[in-house]
């Protein structure tokens, strides 16, 4: 299967990237000459849209602010066999796009992530570097060791992945949601180490270390609740149970010493916490069954989408040869 047999779309979400977008579009046109290049302008207040259009890109405006909203719109609008997603700030090299696409094809993967070399030690600011290390470690503990750079914005996808991905996030946590989707359904994925560039002079990062870090942490908790409800509610139940038993101990000591329960409010609170922990455990058990059913439905929806057209033709030829 050759790249010429497949339709490729390059998707570039942008917000105030007038300094870099024209060069990025031009370099992608050279790297993938047969690809459609689409720039989704997210309420830029500068000349991003004009310069992208002048460079030969198809420009679409997405009024809902936030990268997650842009990605959701892109994935819904665009129909292709292979999708390449990058940022418009020039930090990802368009010349690496053929490597991502070829890896996607040769490895029969549904998503290839261009991991950023040295991002853990230098992400522009010390806070970003620490956050990358922390959240990647947390991801591996919660969802599995499939990825080493869950925040990379340079990715290649099959149509199967894009059209089965229920994008919920509104902001920069969208890459985390993509990674969890792949880990949850056990989709074939690959990582390719790539160099990560710097923004040009005068171009500012849209990331906020504390605000976006808090949003990503909340996304981790939400995804854990949705995908691993037993583990999530069991953790809360353990806290309530430990607090309840801790309050019970002095009441029991007093009872066995004097034969009286003088701290009745403490006893009531302790029993309430223990009962609440039991309710949490029951909720976790019930929701775990619901979560497993949802995963099965997502998997079936994923399987209803055909594989790459080139792959389909190749397997059809193999089937005919075997029959003959």
UniProtKB/TrEMBL annotation:
Pfam families: Glycos_transf_2 (PF00535). InterPro entries: Glyco_trans_2-like, Glycosyltransferase_2, Nucleotide-diphossugar_trans. GO terms for molecular function: glycosyltransferase activity. Keywords: Glycosyltransferase, Membrane, Transferase, Transmembrane, Transmembrane helix. The chain crosses the membrane at residues 232-253, 265-290. PANTHER family: RFBJ PROTEIN (PTHR48090:SF7), UNDECAPRENYL-PHOSPHATE 4-DEOXY-4-FORMAMIDO-L-ARABINOSE TRANSFERASE-RELATED (PTHR48090). This is Glycosyltransferase.
